[in-house]
Design brief:
With 48 residues, this protein is mostly helical. Helices cover 35% and strands 0% of the residues. The chain is extended and about 40 Å long.
Length: 48
Amino acid sequence: MVRALEKFRQMVKSQNGDISQIDNTDLLPKAKYERNIYSERNGFVGYH
């Protein structure tokens, strides 16, 4: 996981992104609305 996270930081930095948001997600923009959606049964989401 550490290697993947470091690689992600490198990719964001190479695109002039703000890498501080990777470690502190409170810096990310928040959605205006939030809605929880619950499943009626166990399983996974797929498509055909």
